[in-house]
Amino acid sequence: MEEEYFLVHPDTHGMTAAGDRVVARASGLLGDQVAGEFSQGQVEGRTAPCSTMDELRTDLRRVRAGLAAAARAEGLRLCASGTPVLDGPAGRAELGDHPRYRDGARQYRSMLDDFAICAAHTHVHLPDRETAVLVGNHLRPWLPLFIAMSANSPYHRGQDTGYASWRSVIRGRFPCLGPPPYARSLAEWEELASAIAATEAMLEPGMPFWDVRPNPRLPTVEIRTMDVPADLDDTVALTALIRALVLTAADRVADGDPGPRPPVELLRAAYWRAGRDGWSGSGVDAVTGEVLPSGVQARRLLALVRPALRAQGDEDEAMAFLSRLDRRGTGADRQRARMAADPHLGRLVESLVAETCAGEPGAR
């Protein structure tokens, strides 16, 4: 599991460029489980490979705590939100120190001016890259629902966007961010990635930023569609659902099922609707075109993956998550509820910091 976080100043509540310093401090405790991100106002935490959700919860809490402590040592705070609620003192954040980020800035130019977004990425082990590509075909129709269930970016640089996941809107402007292509084989997938990279719409054919991909360095399928949740338990539950969906899809691939092939236009419309309305609204079934409440879609997903959830001992985790969504909504819903009760964006950021680091001493 990978999560990205903003570094915010406790007084201004804006994103602050200190990624290299925070990572250097945190790496003494966490090693390569921490890394820099696209902007210096962000950092990334990574868990070790885990077999159970209890293991994941424990390690993710440790990673968050280590990064939060390193941020506090630099006079900053760790904040899990899909977009920066408030701007930093200099507006656009300083670019992270990585050749790929510099290449991206040259290639996409002003499209990256406000590209500071934080995601949660889930990796699930699979036996080979061919299986990972074919599993992706089965995952594609469900990706909008994971946007809706993880939505945590209604505010962006001081403005209420009117969306539940503004992060998904920022990503949607790029030619190669979003749902992966349907591919009948790994060879077809690689051929398409190479052709797109040749147009310069993609940086590297071996590392596309599609929302499902065989990871280029790990023996996993990587799912990249979600906003980072502030509530650690939400991250864990979303991971349980994703693992169950991957296992269910892998069984179908083994049985020769090629997976549904919804029209790309309908899938992108489903992405947009999920980003706008989130959990509290309705979403689009990318296969049938039906517009359904997100809760109805989620229970269809639950029915599909329940055998895999039970086999992994994760059914209670998933059921508790859906109950939480029904009761209190997503991060986006909770952010708006806090603003309705106390319309002050700085205090909203403080509440996100507290939720990100819940249970850690000195979190605020």
Uncertain ranges = none
Quickly give the CATH architecture: 2-Layer Sandwich
- Return the CATH class: Alpha Beta
Q: Helix and strand succession?
A: EHEEHEHEHHEEHHEEHHEEHHHH
Catalytic activity: L-cysteine + L-glutamate + ATP = gamma-L-glutamyl-L-cysteine + ADP + phosphate + H(+)
Pfam family, one: GCS2
EC number: 6.3.2.2
GO molecular function: ligase activity
Description:
- There is one protein chain.
- The chain has 364 residues and is α+β, with helices and mostly antiparallel strands.
- It has one domain (2-356): Creatine Kinase, Chain A, domain 2, CATH 3.30.590.
- 48% of the residues lie in helices and 13% in strands.
- The strands form three sheets. Strands 1, 2, 3, 4, 5, 8 and 9 form a seven-stranded antiparallel β-sheet that branches.
- A hairpin with a 5-residue loop joins strand 8 (212-214) and strand 9.
- Helix 1 (19-30) packs across helix 2, helix 2 packs across helix 8 (232-254) and helix 10 (294-312) packs antiparallel against helix 11 (315-328).
- The mean pLDDT is 93.
Set out the fold topology:
Elements: E1 2-8, H1 19-30, E2 34-36, E3 42-46, H2 53-73, E4 77-79, H3 99-108, E5 119-125, H4 129-139, H5 143-150, E6 155-156, E7 159-160, H6 166-172, H7 186-198, E8 212-214, E9 220-227, H8 232-254, H9 264-277, E10 282-284, E11 291-293, H10 294-312, H11 315-328, H12 331-341, H13 345-356
Antiparallel strand pairs: 1-3, 1-4, 1-5, 2-3, 5-9, 6-7, 8-9, 10-11
